[in-house]
UniProtKB/TrEMBL annotation, chains A, B:
Protein name: 5-methylthioadenosine/S-adenosylhomocysteine deaminase
UniProt-recorded Gene Ontology molecular function terms: 5'-methylthioadenosine deaminase activity; metal ion binding; S-adenosylhomocysteine deaminase activity
Residues holding Zn(2+): H62, H64, H209, D297
Family affiliation: Belongs to the metallo-dependent hydrolases superfamily. MTA/SAH deaminase family.
Enzyme class: hydrolase
Native source organism of the sequence: Alicyclobacillus acidoterrestris (strain ATCC 49025 / DSM 3922 / CIP 106132 / NCIMB 13137 / GD3B)
Residues in Amidohydrolase-related domain copies: 54-401
Length: 428, 428
């Protein structure tokens, strides 16, 4: 039982008065307006926080968690210089130990900033999954695979299959596994088909990068006479539920394909800006009825994992581009960062809300923060004013993982020491 | 004496190792690398914070502080609907008491998020200045004036003159006063000339809004056959040092005028996005050698006063627009938010740095925050990863005003209560 001074149940239900949430294990059983009527002497498991506002945990629909280790290792560089001269040489040195500690750092950063679910596509994922299991966060994980040659192709298939066997629905159901072909420019068409077949066999969705940069689209047109999205459809990828990250350089025809095939999009506004990729047409995606979530991308291209920033940027950036202040109103941005984001990464219909039956993934904000003063409009304050600094308590699957801004499940001193050690190894 | 684990002295001097700052009253006397060599038994006024990183206090070059009272009172609306139906009716009800408490709320929010200097153009400014004096923040204040008729014109001149007499260089020099003609569309040409004459007489600069929206520029062309910036030059405004806010819709000729006349610009990226005004050509402004600072604008159009967000947005937004990751690198964004911002609002050459002789306006960030891990590049981490949640201790003019994230100079419980009371009066 969690009693708070206000709550945003979902984008349509904003309660600016006391309310309590009744939990049943890892699920929200119901919410009731008012304060909890404690009956004399009866012991109840009640957390009473009148100076908090409850919101659903934020859902980060695209990222590469252990890239926290590469935060600030290369900035203000053209994409290919950044990748080839900074990121790839460092990634070559990443060990299983590094992936584990890098993911611990990411889980810490995400939990204390109000993210309770994230998606990941990276390497040595058993060690990422271990960090997820231990930190208490919820995650949709995939082995990132590329098909440069027969060895990498075969490795990708084997590792994906084995990772699925090891971790799908593990950690009390907090981990779900998808497949993770990196992109059409790193996975040849017949390999994408093969991966789609494996996804059907395992009955899991796919995460992939699509149409992130203009260059990628131009090259795809040159090589295949198709956009990356048209190519992905042609090879059968969209026969499987798919979450496509970025989709910055898309045609109307691309978006029509995605709408028709039910492809979800992870919109990463800050990463797309920082890498100079461009600005994805979010309003048009939503007009076409595409399910969109928000993502931070990895911390090497963002450079943090703060979903409040992505939510605010999704709400403001497209207003500026369109010169129209009515584009992406606060409720839509909130939905993208919570319930629609959860749909984008294949979680249940109620996920990302505080409705009865939803997973008990709950974030309590400090109602006494200047960002929540005064309260003309609670939803607006959360979307346009609040930040990571307002997150006080966090619950995932009914378990408290952050208290008073401090993580309960992560040994932060140890993470600091290990990350410092690994950084020295990387730059040696 | 403040000893820390690292410091950014200015955009060019980043010290990722222990360093101590020696203060002389309200001034930084010098900084030295290493830890402070305490001599046996000798008492020193030493604050020892090895787990902090020092940066200059951030400088917010445009805003309307007491608009915190209107935070969330109107969002996702076209500019004129927003102003006429939401903001103006509420502003009509603002009292001197409201201005005082709204400014206290703003000072609280700014100090705990690392802003030590801000600019203000609003109403009943004696009461704003009182809140500045008491809260310990530094401010460049102006009475916002409009010239709709003879009464408003005369009031504007009288109030500006009296406010200057009351507050210029007061609060131990933390307050400087400028004149604040609102905009060319609210102040007729001959009134702008009159204000420029008063500025010359008082020997103070001017703050004004210029070319914020496309409509404003179109109307100015229609009414005067000149852009707002060309008009401002013609009427003699730029004969006085001027800080122009926004400058979103500017021609090359406009920017050439500003460069030639030494006009400063306050770039407000988030407010310009949120109100649907557009995206100002920051890279071109800097190429032309114009001095630019960053601003939040008022909390009714942002909706917070967090300069870390503006610094990050200035660094990322223009990369995305230009599709060029090399535009506005981290050091430039840092400079805009600190030293160049200080020049933009007419403070001393050293202001916004931690160099010897600079004002002792210092922010200490939590070096143990996930945002500062690992430290591949301290400056990048501060610009691209840190946020208000990393601010721990803040000093203005050598006096500590925030400790461990909590303001020392502001009665936050009182502010909360007064702001809640005033909000009820406003919406009644």
């Amino acid at each position: 039982m969690i009693e708070v001074g206000g709550a945003i149940i979902d984008k349509d239900t904003v309660i600016a008065e006391p309310v309590y949430l009744v939990l049943d294990g890892d699920i929200i059983e119901r919410y009731e307006r008012g304060t909890y009527p404690c009956e004399g002497g009866e012991p109840v498991n009640l957390i009473r926080k009148p100076n908090r506002v409850a919101i659903p945990g934020l859902v980060n629909t695209h990222g590469h968690a252990a890239m926290t280790l590469l935060r600030g290792a290369g900035d203000d560089l053209p994409l290919m210089t950044w990748l080839n001269e900074r990121i790839f040489p460092l990634e070559d040195k990443l060990t299983e130990d590094a992936i584990y500690w890098g993911t611990q750092l990411a889980a810490w950063e995400m939990l204390v900033s109000g993210t309770t679910t994230y998606t990941d596509m990276y390497m040595m994922m058993d060690h990422a999954a271990k960090a997820v299991a231990e930190s208490g966060i919820r995650a949709v994980l995939s082995v990132g695979v590329v098909g440069f040659n027969d060895v990498s192709r075969e490795n990708g298939m084997q590792r994906s299959r084995s990772f699925h066997g090891n971790w799908h629905r593990q950690a009390s159901g907090r981990i779900t596994v998808t497949l993770g072909p990196h992109a059409p420019y790193t996975c040849p068409p017949d390999y994408l088909t093969e991966i789609a077949e494996l996804a059907k066999e395992l009955d899991v969705p796919i995460q992939i990068h699509l149409s992130e940069t203009q260059t990628e689209v131009v090259n795809s047109q040159g090589d295949h006479s198709l956009t990356p999205i048209a190519l992905a459809e042609k090879v059968g990828l969209f026969d499987v539920p798919t979450l496509a990250a970025h989709c910055v350089h898309v045609t109307d025809a691309d978006l029509d394909i995605m709408a028709r095939r039910g492809v979800r999009i992870a919109h990463n506004p800050q990463s797309n800006l920082k890498l100079g990729s461009g600005i994805a047409p979010l309003p048009k995606m939503l007009e076409k009825g595409i399910v969109v979530g928000l993502g931070t991308d990895g911390a090497a291209s963002n450079n943090n994992l703060d979903m409040f920033e992505e939510m605010r940027l999704a709400a403001t950036l497209h207003k500026g581009v369109a010169q129209d202040a009515e584009v992406i109103p606060a409720a839509v941005a909130f939905d993208l960062a919570t319930a629609m984001g959860a749909k984008a990464c294949f979680l249940g219909q109620l996920h990302g809300t505080l409705k009865p039956g939803a997973a008990a993934d709950i974030v309590l904000l400090d109602a006494a923060s200047p960002h929540l003063l005064p309260q003309h409009n609670l939803l607006s304050n959360v979307v346009y004013a609040c930040g990571a600094d307002d997150v006080r308590d966090v619950f995932v699957a009914g378990r408290q993982v952050v208290s008073g801004g401090e993580p309960l499940t992560i040994d932060v001193e140890r993470v600091r020491a290990e990350v410092a050690r690994i950084k020295e190894q990387l730059v040696k």
